């Protein structure tokens, strides 16, 4: 039977297929597949019911279906409950209509349409039954039932109580105060409550203590930071492109801040929706509304895709898919290629929705500022432009021929048809051609940004000199205004939208046919003549109070985040494939109230969190009934216990140690920074390891819920990673500060910080005993303090851990004595600079020198912006004997620009001069973020013959000696020094490992140790300030171990 | 320090004690089985989402080793000889071939001859170029698919699709689907393992072996050789063994208390278990990657004694050791970071890469066969696309997703056959086209999974590994 397809009983007619899909397949799927499904590997009684072949073959007792003969078919016998021994489904007899459908189907010969055929919906027709699906029906506010007397705190509870009563269940009592504040604080702010807040709440005897707590938390800025994160999941927000070059999006963060601000300001949801879909059309001149259109931009982008037509279609598909998921909560994505198989979502509807977005033009040049701000800026800029006109003109003239070549080379890479579009004047292009040309032209500007690479030496020197001139006027140059990562439109006429492969049928903007089959009425928007007004129309339709989806979807999402599961379980799919709501009347009640009261999200939160339902304890005093009737707690007969999500865990790790920096807003920071996770750079292809293992979404498509996995990889990270060890030490240090006495009070403080409660007497005794025993177990000879000072970081595009060298820090040193690196030598490293000096000062990567121009030695580093000779490039300084016999400094420079925040491999190979023959320095530099970039090489002659020898240590990331300000700022990794001038084929970049000439190779990995020399030389490094390794304070280490245990504990990772 | 006990269990006795102490309350764990042997049994059954599941139909491949030549090897210089190309060399692509979008825009550049010497090999007489002399010796094991087709013209999209079926990120990789569908027979090792030949980053990074929208338990684990094959596997340097044990003892107590207070949350038992699974992985992973147990003859066969072949040899040998231990899906990136991407100087680029890969790959096929593992192990070779017949920069070739070659061996595949053809110059597949979806459907089929029946519900919608497309290739098994 290998490769044979399932046996079929002839091709069903369209009518038969339609009947099957509408009446039979749903019954089989819902009632039978749970126990009889090949796909789900459930084959009770040997029967599979998800293929005709399965039903024909039947189970242990023989065929289940005899086509054409219902009375002889065991399937029908079973569902009819005709006999005692064969009754299916076993729990309850099917409704009569379903039995009739199955019977009719068997009678017509059991036609089973091939799953790959188009679904049975005829001619895109929508039926009355389709419109009657719960999600498409108008929202009807049902009065709350008269239930829950004595328990209910608000109307919400009455709906819950009624369902519980139906199931003969009783709700759990209210949770203890300590539990409530921890639940509410994590839920509303994403952070743990402080011990002081816990205590204050416990002692607050006022009857409205809890309500005031909720109000306080809703008013705190942390609320917006938490709830923005849920929204950012939905809109696939990230700070990078997500392709091979995972380029940073320098202005995407303004959208993230906009979302945070909107939640904190309790912006009405209808306005929030409108701004994101059509802020530019509906609120022209409002900087926030412009930034909001970043919603349309968070899809992935490939900088070098020459298939521009395909790339544009991908962007529009992404916006369509996301919009349907986020705002409509339907699986319209399925309808991109065919009518939806189960829901009344037509392929036409997909493109009707897409047509609203057909006119957009992605922009990175729109200023998010008020008219006044723009005018003030223009005035200052004009002054600067006047002052610098001549210099800028000369730079432009020098660059002009290179620009032309770069432009032509870039354009030539496109197919001829596209080249023609790009070369046409903009006015001669059709709207669609203009979109494609603009998208393609990004590849030209990409080359403009790299122009320096192609400049001939003389021109480059002149350009650099002119730029230094230009920089003199920086003082009068106004700081740039904020740029929005946003959209505008291509003009008043939108390009046509067509259904692909359907004879390119043109489609006009329109809504879901099941709700409104007529084309959308589009009107030009006032004040924005260059826009179609299409998105404004969509926004208006979505935010009409009677739209049945918008409010239901949002209310359900908010509910989902509070309870872990929505009233409708599939928060982005209200169709037949999702589960129906557990409490449909409650969902409608909340949706109607939400709209009637002005779309305020905070009011909705307040209603939910102050309910008795929300306040229930996770443990029920008599759980037996609930466990039996509702093991999944769908009816909410008790509270839940949930694992914190990735960002909550990360933020809590900083919060409990007192290190969390609560600064709000601004560009994304590196993952190691103690800011809230929502403010860290979210790079799609370089994920933070902690957020990754705790199920942060990928940000490639809209994510409406998160997985909560439990894996050994998480446990290894929690128990063994240097990150957690450092957090534990910081936690112990904080405890020591907070509770100087080394006694149970410190344990109490630890519990209050980590778990939000005091320990029991037994727990306290156990912890004290643990610290005492652990003090004896800690090995004082194991270097604790030196390694504790090491700060690691993750370099993008690289494996493993790098050393994070902070500006002003001394760096690391290895004692080489005068035995090595005095003849020909090579220094290699991976680096990513966070900053360079504003002056010309060289920031040291590695040196064997104290910076004294009169003393022998050498140093390799990156020059500052103000370097007179070569700004922001690799430099080697040598102090030794020259060919002419003199002794002094010689500096040589590579010509390659070292960009900030970009990972590079670098090598500097020094071949000394011999006799009268000049020596040679070879610089290599490789941009790791872009595989297309070559390994750049520059060869520079020099005259130093030797005399470099000194007894100083080799320093990494800084220089020895009194001169400050020469240390590196950024990440360094895999530093290798070799007692030979390596050639291209011997470089670390292509040939990992050590050779006989390797004088030291430091990789900064926890294994075999961050300071270990992995070469045979055994030249371990140490922080340059720590001269001797201090023995561990075993007592403090034991406290850190207690902290480490608490940070690993379920009680820290879960909230009830 | 490779043999230092991890989690501080420095004697068998101590470990027993710890396991006993820690084991109370571990939900459903086969603790006795674990205590029975001093090293954990080679195959311990997994529970939960990774529990071994029966295939949908009889599987001929229990495991897959996917040799990913990253950057796109030239089919025209390895397995798909094109005499007409050499005749037309120097002339532009004839107009009859229509328009072509190439990343570097040289679609009308002169056709570039392939100066290979081609010979037929084995009983089957498969064509293999002189760049792959070792692979040629296993020609009778190979089903060479010359008609592969993909959608992405750039590396990112191409590598993404070859892994996940889609040119856009966000979907689960094939290894994740296989793990989801079949689970694992050895809970002590990751079910889906990734190896690469250098420290560079594979295009797109780890998301190539990610679980996409499925839970992270199904994602691939990047395995490195040496003392710490899995990140954070070992007790950190500076932490004494007794100290680590002390921490774990207390942690177990706290977690057991907490789970006891919340009996309705089975997830809390899973968290307790996860620490023990971590411990078992600590015991099982280092021996799995310890190549010192291999004979000198094996090392030589894989090319470990030669600097050109040592890296790929080690990875291929590791792959065999992992498959022996029940690992479901092993992926080896050769040329990680698009090293096969010969836009220029194809001759020197490919000659070196072929040399570094050829002997180890052939040794892997032979070794598997000799150990009786080839019958149950599918070996797949190929890149994200092939290369154009047109030249680029005079001596290179651009990306070509419209027709390229991959091969499969073992795991029920009938060897010694060539499937499909490309046109006369090797630009487009013309006969028996095998889209990536078809290739994935075939791989899954050989593993006993039906690409249409393997469904994961995401956001309530049924998602399938091949995006509802593709068909398994019949000829792979029938010839």
Quick structural overview:
The complex is a heterodimer of chains A (1056) and B (479). Chain A has 1056 residues and is an alpha+beta fold.
Features:
heterodimer; A: 1056 residues; alpha+beta; 5 domains; 8-stranded antiparallel β-sheet; 33 helices; 37% helix; 11% strand; globular; B: 479 residues; Alkaline Phosphatase, subunit A; 2 domains; 13 helices; 17 strands
The low-confidence parts of chain A are 1-9, 115-123
Shape of chain B: globular
The CATH topology of the largest domain in chain A is Jelly Rolls
Structural class of chain A: alpha+beta
> In one word, what is the shape of chain A?
globular
CATH architecture call of the largest domain in chain B: 3-Layer(aba) Sandwich
Q: If you compute it from the alpha carbons, what radius of gyration of chain A comes out, rounded to the nearest whole angstrom? A: 34 Å
Radius of gyration of chain B (Å)? 24 Å
- Helices and strands of chain B, in order, run as HHEHEEHEHHEEHHHHEHEEEEEEEEHEEH
Major sheet characteristics of chain A: 8 strands, antiparallel
Q: What's the number of structural domains of chain B?
A: 2
- Which CATH class of the largest domain in chain B is shown? Alpha Beta
Secondary structure: elements and pairs:
The complex is a heterodimer of chains A (1056) and B (479).
Chain A: H1 14-32, E1 36-37, E2 42-43, H2 52-57, H3 74-79, H4 96-107, H5 128-131, H6 155-166, H7 177-189, H8 195-202, H9 209-219, H10 221-234, H11 253-264, H12 269-282, H13 287-292, H14 308-328, H15 347-355, E3 360-367, H16 371-412, H17 416-423, H18 431-448, H19 457-471, E4 483-489, E5 497-499, E6 505-507, H20 534-542, H21 550-563, H22 584-596, H23 601-609, H24 624-629, E7 642-643, H25 646-655, H26 689-693, H27 712-720, H28 722-738, H29 744-755, H30 761-777, H31 785-788, E8 792-793, E9 802-805, E10 812-814, E11 825-833, E12 843-848, E13 857-862, E14 874-882, E15 887-893, E16 904-911, E17 919-927, E18 936-942, E19 944-946, E20 954-956, E21 970-978, E22 998-1002, E23 1022-1023, H32 1034-1048, H33 1050-1053, E24 1054-1055
Chain B: H1 12-23, H2 31-36, E1 63-69, H3 83-88, E2 118-121, E3 126-129, H4 133-136, E4 142-149, H5 155-164, H6 174-182, E5 192-196, E6 221-222, H7 241-261, H8 266-289, H9 296-301, H10 310-324, E7 329-334, H11 346-370, E8 377-382, E9 386-392, E10 396-400, E11 404-409, E12 417-419, E13 421-422, E14 429-431, E15 434-435, H12 436-446, E16 456-458, E17 461-463, H13 475-478
Parallel strand pairs in B: 1-7, 1-8, 4-12, 4-15, 5-6, 5-7
Antiparallel strand pairs in B: 2-3, 4-11, 8-11, 9-10, 13-14, 16-17
Helix pairs in contact in B: 7-8, 10-11
């Amino acid at each position: 039977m290998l490769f044979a397809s399932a046996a079929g009983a002839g091709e069903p007619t369209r009518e038969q297929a339609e009947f099957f899909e509408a009446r039979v397949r749903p019954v089989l799927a819902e009632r039978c597949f749970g126990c009889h499904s090949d796909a789900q590997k459930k084959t009770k009684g040997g029967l599979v019911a998800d293929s005709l072949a399965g039903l024909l073959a039947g189970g242990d007792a023989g065929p289940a279906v005899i086509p054409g003969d219902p009375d002889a078919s065991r399937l029908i016998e079973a569902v009819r409950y005709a006999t005692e021994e064969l009754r299916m489904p076993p729990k309850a007899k099917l409704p009569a209509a379903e039995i009739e459908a199955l019977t009719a189907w068997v009678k017509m010969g059991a036609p089973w349409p091939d799953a790959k055929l188009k679904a049975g919906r005829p001619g895109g027709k929508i039926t009355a039954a389709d419109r009657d699906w719960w999600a498409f029906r108008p929202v009807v506010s049902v009065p709350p039932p008269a239930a829950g007397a004595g328990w209910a705190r608000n109307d919400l509870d009455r709906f819950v109580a009624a369902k519980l009563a139906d199931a003969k269940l009783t709700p759990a009592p209210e949770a203890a105060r300590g539990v409530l504040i921890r639940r509410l604080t994590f839920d509303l702010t994403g952070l743990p409550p402080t011990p002081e807040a816990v205590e204050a709440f416990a002692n607050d005897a006022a009857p409205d203590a809890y309500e005031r707590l909720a109000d306080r938390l809703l008013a705190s800025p942390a609320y917006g930071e938490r709830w923005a994160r849920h929204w950012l999941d939905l809109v696939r927000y990230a700070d990078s492109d997500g392709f091979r070059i995972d380029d940073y999006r320098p202005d995407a963060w303004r959208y993230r801040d906009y979302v945070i601000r909107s939640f904190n300001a309790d912006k009405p949801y209808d306005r929030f929706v409108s701004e994101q879909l059509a802020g530019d059309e509906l609120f022209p001149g409002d900087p926030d509304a412009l930034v909001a259109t970043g919603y349309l931009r968070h899809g992935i982008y490939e900088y070098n895709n020459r298939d521009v037509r395909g790339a544009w279609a991908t962007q529009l598909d992404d916006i369509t898919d996301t919009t349907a998921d986020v705002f409509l909560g339907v699986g319209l994505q399925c309808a991109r290629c065919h009518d939806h198989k189960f829901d009344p979502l037509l392929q036409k509807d997909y493109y009707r929705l897409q047509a609203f977005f057909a006119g957009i033009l992605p922009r990175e040049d729109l200023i998010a500022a008020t008219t006044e701000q723009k005018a003030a800026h223009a005035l200052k800029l004009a002054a600067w432009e006047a002052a610098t006109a001549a210099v800028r003109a000369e730079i432009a003239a020098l660059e002009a021929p290179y620009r032309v070549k770069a432009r032509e080379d870039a354009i030539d890479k496109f197919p001829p048809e596209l080249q023609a579009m790009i070369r046409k004047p903009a006015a001669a292009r059709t709207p669609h051609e203009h979109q494609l040309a603009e998208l393609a032209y990004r590849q030209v500007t990409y080359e403009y940004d790299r122009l320096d690479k192609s400049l001939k030496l003389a021109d480059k020197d002149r350009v650099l000199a002119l730029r230094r001139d230009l920089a003199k006027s920086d003082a009068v140059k106004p700081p740039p205004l904020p740029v929005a990562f946003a959209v505008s439109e291509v003009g008043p006429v939108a390009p046509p939208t067509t259904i692909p492969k359907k004879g390119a049928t043109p489609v006009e903007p329109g809504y879901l046919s099941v709700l409104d089959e007529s084309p959308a009425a589009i009107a030009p928007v006032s004040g924005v003549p260059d826009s179609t007004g299409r998105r404004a129309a969509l926004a208006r339709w979505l935010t009409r109070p009677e739209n049945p989806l918008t409010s239901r979807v949002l209310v359900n999402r908010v509910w989902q985040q509070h309870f872990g599961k929505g009233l409708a379980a599939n928060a982005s799919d209200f169709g037949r494939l999702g589960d129906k709501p557990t409490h449909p009347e409650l969902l409608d009640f909340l949706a109607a109230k939400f709209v009637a009261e002005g779309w305020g999200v905070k009011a909705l939160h307040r209603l939910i969190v102050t309910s008795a339902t929300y306040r229930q304890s996770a443990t029920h005093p008599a759980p037996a009934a609930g466990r039996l009737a509702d093991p999944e707690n769908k009816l909410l007969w008790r509270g839940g216990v949930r694992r914190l999500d990735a960002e909550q865990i990360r933020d809590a790790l900083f919060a409990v140690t007192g290190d969390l920096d609560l600064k709000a807003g601004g560009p994304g920071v590196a993952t190691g920074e103690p800011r809230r996770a929502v403010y860290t750079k979210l790079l799609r292809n370089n994920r933070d390891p902690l957020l990754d293992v705790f199920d942060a979404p990928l940000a490639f498509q809209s994510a409406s819920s998160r997985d909560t996995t439990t894996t050994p990889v998480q446990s290894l990270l929690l128990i063994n990673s240097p990150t957690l060890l450092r957090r534990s030490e910081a936690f112990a240090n904080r405890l020591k500060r907070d509770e100087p006495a080394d006694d149970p009070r410190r344990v109490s403080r630890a519990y209050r910080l980590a778990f939000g409660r005091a320990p029991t007497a037994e727990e306290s005794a156990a912890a004290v005993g643990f610290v005492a025993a652990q003090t004896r177990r800690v090995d004082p000879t194991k270097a604790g303090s030196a390694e504790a000072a090491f700060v690691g970081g993750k370099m993008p595009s690289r494996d493993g851990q790098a050393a994070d060298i902070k500006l002003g820090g001394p760096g690391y040193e290895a004692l080489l004595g005068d035995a090595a690196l005095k003849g020909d030598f090579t220094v290699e490293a991976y680096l990513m600079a966070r900053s360079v000096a504003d002056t010309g000062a060289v920031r040291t990567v590695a040196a064997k020198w104290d910076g004294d121009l009169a003393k022998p030695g050498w140093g390799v580093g990156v020059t500052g912006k103000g370097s007179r000779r070569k700004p922001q490039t690799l430099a080697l300084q040598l102090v030794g004997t020259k060919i002419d016999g003199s002794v002094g400094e010689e500096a040589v420079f590579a010509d390659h620009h070292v960009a900030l925040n970009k990972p590079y491999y670098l090598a500097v190979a020094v071949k000394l001069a011999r006799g009268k023959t000049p020596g040679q320095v070879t610089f290599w530099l490789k941009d790791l973020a872009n595989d297309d970039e070559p390994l750049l090489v520059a060869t520079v002659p020099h005259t130093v013959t030797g005399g470099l020898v000194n007894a100083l240590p080799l320093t990494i990331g800084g220089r020895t000696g009194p001169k400050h300000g020469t240390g590196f700022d950024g990440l360094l990794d895999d530093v290798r020094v070799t007692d030979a001038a390596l050639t291209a084929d011997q470089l670390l970049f292509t040939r990992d490992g050590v050779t006989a000439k390797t004088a030291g190779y430091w990789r900064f990995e926890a294994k075999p140790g961050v300071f270990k020399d992995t070469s045979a030389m055994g030249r371990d490094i140490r922080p340059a300030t720590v001269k001797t390794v201090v023995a561990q304070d075993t007592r403090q280490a034991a406290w850190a171990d207690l902290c480490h245990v608490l940070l690993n504990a379920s009680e820290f990772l879960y909230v009830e | 320090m490779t043999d230092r006990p991890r989690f501080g269990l420095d004697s068998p006795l101590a470990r027993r004690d710890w396991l006993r102490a820690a084991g109370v309350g571990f939900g459903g764990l086969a603790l006795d089985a674990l205590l029975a042997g001093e090293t954990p049994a080679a195959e311990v059954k997994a529970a939960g989402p990774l529990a071994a599941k029966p295939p949908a139909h009889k599987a001929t491949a229990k495991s897959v080793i996917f040799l990913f030549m990253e950057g796109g090897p030239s089919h025209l210089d390895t397995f798909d000889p094109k005499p007409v190309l050499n005749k037309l060399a120097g002339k532009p692509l004839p107009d009859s071939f229509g328009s072509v979008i190439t990343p570097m825009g040289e679609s009308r550049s002169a056709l570039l001859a392939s100066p290979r010497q081609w010979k037929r090999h084995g009983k089957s007489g498969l064509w293999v170029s002189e760049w792959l002399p070792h692979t040629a010796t296993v020609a009778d094991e190979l089903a060479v698919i010359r008609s592969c087709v993909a959608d992405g013209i750039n590396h990112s999209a191409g590598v993404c699709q070859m892994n996940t079926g889609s040119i856009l990120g966000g979907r689960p990789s094939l290894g994740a689907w296989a793990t989801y569908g079949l689970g694992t027979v050895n809970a002590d090792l990751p079910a889906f393992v990734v190896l690469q030949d250098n420290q560079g980053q594979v295009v797109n990074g780890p998301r190539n072996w990610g679980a996409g929208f499925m839970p992270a338990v199904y994602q691939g684990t990047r395995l490195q050789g040496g003392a710490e094959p899995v990140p954070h596997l070992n007790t950190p340097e500076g932490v004494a063994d007794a100290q680590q044990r002390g921490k774990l003892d207390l942690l177990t107590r706290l977690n057991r208390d907490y789970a006891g207070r919340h009996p309705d949350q089975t997830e809390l038992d899973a968290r307790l278990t996860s620490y023990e699974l971590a411990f078992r992985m600590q015991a099982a992973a280092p021996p799995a990657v310890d190549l010192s147990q291999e004979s000198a003859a094996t090392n030589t066969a894989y090319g470990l004694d030669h600097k050109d072949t040592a890296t790929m040899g080690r990875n291929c040998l590791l792959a065999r050791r992992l498959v022996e231990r029940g690992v479901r899906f092993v992926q080896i990136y050769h040329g990680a970071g698009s090293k096969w991407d010969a836009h220029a100087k194809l001759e020197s680029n490919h000659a070196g890469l072929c040399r570094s890969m050829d002997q180890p790959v052939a040794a892997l096929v032979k070794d598997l066969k000799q150990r009786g593992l080839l019958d149950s192990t599918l070996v797949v070779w190929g890149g994200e696309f092939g290369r154009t017949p047109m030249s680029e920069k005079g001596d290179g070739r651009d990306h070509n997703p419209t027709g390229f070659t991959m091969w499969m061996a073992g795991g029920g595949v009938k060897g010694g056959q060539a499937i499909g053809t490309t046109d006369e110059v090797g630009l487009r597949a013309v006969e028996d086209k095998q889209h990536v979806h078809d290739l994935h459907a075939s791989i899954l089929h050989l593993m006993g999974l039906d690409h249409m029946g393997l469904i994961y519900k995401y956001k309530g919608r049924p998602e399938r590994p091949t995006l509802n497309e593709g068909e398994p290739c019949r000829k792979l098994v029938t010839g």
